[in-house]
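Apologies for my clumsy wording, but are you able to produce some protein sequence, whichever is easiest, and the tokens describing how it folds?
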Amino acid sequence: MSSDVNQAAQERLGGIIQDRAFDRFGEVWAEDVVDHDPAPDQAPGLAGIVDFWQDFTTAFPDLELTPDPLVVTDDFVTAVFTIRGTHTGPFQGHEPTGKSFEVRGIQVAKFRDGKIVERWGATDEQGLAQQLGLDDASDAGDDHGDVRFVSA
């Protein structure tokens, strides 16, 4: 596939997330996508990606994702992004804190036929947990304070 097709698919993904139209994820994600960095308890494939984003935007309904920069090739799209939101719904076992966060992350997506077939990603999970006040439990050695999520 060409880099133009991959960039168009990545931009479509951004619109789908912004519109919260997760039923359209199949336009951009392969049914059997391999997520090399899934969230805790995330199911495999497209179903896991959809479930994650539904849960994540329920926890952070004002979620904004801003890519900068975006690097596109014939096989991969790498997005460095800023993600921000306010914690107003349950998230990975944590009750809403009402606090806001802003962190950076990166995702590398491998494309085939205009769809994401593999993804790797990392986000500043520690920064998110600290900003939401969820890091106290992890500081005490309790794994329930950990926050981990996949990015777009």
Summary: The first strand starts at residue 29 and ends at 35. Strands lie at 29-35, 64-72, 76-86, 100-112, 115-123. The chain has a mean pLDDT of 90.
